[in-house]
Design a protein that fits this description.
six-stranded mixed β-sheet
Length: 144
């Protein structure tokens, strides 16, 4: 695997009955990945991160995350192309996929929809945005 890959666990503050989400964050900016990991941890969820589009597909297969967030601009391919690849895998096509970017044009939104994305989010992601997409995916969200 070529990219920077990490998996983090939360502190275990959740009750066993609550569903802890696993979020796959794909972004080629390491600082952004670190920020996203912290946001997920605040909400009580675990993360899998990748700075490589190539590695991300294998991580999605092996971890079966609750939600996948893909940056619009990656080194080797654009986020829409990666979303399309992930969406074409039968074992992954029901996982909510979001295109994320600091700036989303109408063309980006249309591209994401055509690729099979659930939606688009602008960076920086707020805890409220992250909580909302996790709740829509059926994960319990800690009340902070």
């Amino acid at each position: 695997m070529n990219g920077d890959l990490r998996r983090t666990q939360t502190s275990g503050r959740r009750s066993p009955r609550e569903l802890m989400a696993t979020i796959l964050f794909i972004d080629d900016d390491i600082a952004t990945l670190q920020l996203m990991e912290k946001a997920a941890a605040v909400l009580g969820h675990s993360t899998v991160t990748s700075s490589s589009a190539e590695d991300a597909l294998e991580l999605a297969r092996s971890h079966q995350p609750t939600v996948i967030l893909v940056d619009r601009r990656l080194h080797s391919m654009n986020g829409c192309s990666l979303i399309k690849l992930i969406h074409q895998v039968p074992a992954l096509n029901r996982i909510p996929l979001y295109l994320i970017s600091a700036y989303l044009s109408d063309e980006d939104v249309a591209c994401a929809r055509q690729a099979g994305a659930t939606g688009c989010l602008e960076k920086p992601l707020s805890l409220a945005n992250l909580s909302q997409i996790l709740a829509q995916a059926g994960a319990q969200v800690s009340e902070k």
